[in-house]
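Throughout our pipeline, every protein is held as a single compact record rather than as scattered files. Such a record has a labelled line for the sequence and another for the backbone structure tokens. This encoding replaces a full spatial description with a residue-level series of whole-number codes. For reference, a complete record is included directly beneath this paragraph.
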Amino acid sequence: MCEMFVARATRSFALAELWTFAERLERYGIAGFGWGAAWQTSDGRLAAHVDPRAFRDDPTKERLAEIETGAALVHLRRPSRLSTLGPADTQPFLDRLGRFAYGHNGDFRHFRSWRSRYRAEGRIKGRADSEVGFRWLEDAWDDRDPRLVLSDLHGEFGGQANVMLLATDGRGYAYAGNRENPIFTFVLGDFRIMSTGIYSLDRSLFRYVAHGARDVRLLRHQAAEVVVPD
């Protein structure tokens, strides 16, 4: 099971400012089998980096640390099926039209028929269920509030599944559909963050990872929320 978070700030920040939080989330969660980050660029696009190594083992993070942005999504991987390890299944995924970056945590239940369809269309590159949900979201994305589209995604695929998005306008979205790993929203320093909870059905996230967090709230099951800077 993966860990992930989306962060925004009222100012531009270097990705390095998120690295301590990411390192702790990987260490105290159950991740360490790949990681990735997506961020908003200065010209309003989305960029991403993924690596099948653990965050702690990827030397590229030192170069990425200097990137300035206003919003980011970080995904720390621990797949349910280790047979899916590899670059093709390492998240976050970037929408082919550049509209959003996507991260998934947990397991979709009803994905096999959709997987067969997308494979026939030549759109499946990996082996995990996460990519199937991502392809569905690419097709379902429309002018509605993304929170509604995320609710439809979980309604279609079911299972224990959290999803986080970073949109091109810098807004971050989270959908809480995994009772085994709740999502919290909180303020940490200059950042408004939504994060999974290190697979601990209490608030240990704030003891081990998010020291000094304030304005802490639990995202209700099957609810979606948008994060904007205060």
